[in-house]
Design brief:
The protein is an alpha+beta fold and 274 residues long. It folds into 2 domains: 105 residues, no CATH class; 136 residues, no CATH class. Helix content is 40%, strand content 19%. The protein is built from 10 helices and 11 strands. Strands 6-8-7-9 form a 4-stranded mixed sheet, with helices on one face. A 3-stranded antiparallel sheet has the order 1-4-3. A two-stranded antiparallel sheet has the order 2-5. α6 crosses α7 and α7 crosses α9. Bound molecules: zinc ion. The site of zinc ion has 7 residues, from α6, β9 and α7.
Length: 274
């Protein structure tokens, strides 16, 4: 999601993330309707549906709907999503070819309710398996060897451990996975207690945990939401920019990686768009 040109009418990723933090249920609705897409695009699609009063549901491009036996209704405007564009470029001197990926916003998608035609099978939300995710992410779960009773879990290098009596085991699992995926553990080890300290790395890990918990309807989202909202209310009042755009992009990408890694391989490869 880097190097992307963003047109003025498309919200920033950080704004979408703050919206999801402040509106319980938004992430779950986005995930159940659009789980084939990246979380950023899920939220982008959902806010457009809400703005236009469209029912959230499967989305496809015009030709894909045609292939499915449906046509886009006359006068319907396409939804805008962010898509990767890969270009090859040959270097003049060395003749070496390089591949560049940039991102662009394109109005190319239509939600089911904007189309008519043959019935489509309702989509089922894919199962998520923790062991599968750990294996796919090359992260090892090790025994919890801390004696501090307040410690819920820790992350070091590519290892994580969860206290067997952690209060919110899934939340802690996602939080520790996030520390690894976000690259935090290359800088330091993380031992997380019941009270998460106020710093940006903890906000990033906790936001990933929120996105994962709420997408999968697992316990812990409320706790994460409270922590992050507290971060957004710094000192004087609500600061919507308290989560930098760069962090928002990292958060969305990490949550995406975790959610995708835990699906069965057939589900992972199934028309994963963007
Ligand atoms: Zn932490």
């Amino acid at each position: 999601m880097e190097n992307q040109k963003q047109s003025a009418d498309v919200p920033k990723w950080s704004a979408l993330l703050v919206e999801a933090i402040n509106k319980p249920g938004l992430i779950m609705e986005a995930y159940s309707a659009f789980h084939n897409y990246s979380i950023g695009n899920q939220l982008l699609a959902l806010v457009q549906c809400h703005l236009r009063g469209l029912q959230a549901g499967p989305i496809n491009t015009f030709p894909k709907w045609q292939a499915l036996g449906r046509v886009v209704k006359r006068g319907e405007r396409a939804l805008t999503l962010c898509m990767p564009i890969t270009r090859k470029q040959r270097e003049e001197e060395s003749e070496e070819e390089h591949t560049f990926t940039s991102f662009a916003y394109k109005p190319r998608w239509f939600v089911l309710s904007q189309t008519v035609g043959e019935e489509v099978e309702p989509a089922t939300v894919p199962e998520w398996d923790a062991e599968q995710a750990l294996a796919a992410l090359s992260i090892e779960r090790v025994a919890f060897d801390k004696t501090d009773g307040n410690c819920q879990g820790f992350a070091r290098k590519r290892q994580i451990a969860i206290n067997p009596v952690a209060q919110l085991p899934y939340k802690t699992l996602f939080h520790e996975l996030a520390h690894v995926i976000l690259g935090h553990t290359t800088e330091a080890d993380f031992a997380d207690t019941e009270t998460t300290p106020r710093n940006l790395r903890e906000v990033e890990a906790e936001a990933v945990a929120l996105l994962c918990c709420e997408s999968l309807s697992l316990e812990g989202a409320d706790y994460c939401r409270g922590y992050i909202q507290n971060w957004l209310y710094q000192g004087a009042g609500f600061d919507a920019d308290a989560i930098p755009e760069k962090s928002a992009q990292k958060i969305l990408r990490a949550a995406d990686q975790i959610l995708r890694a835990g699906r069965s391989t057939t589900e992972r490869s199934a028309q994963y768009a963007n």
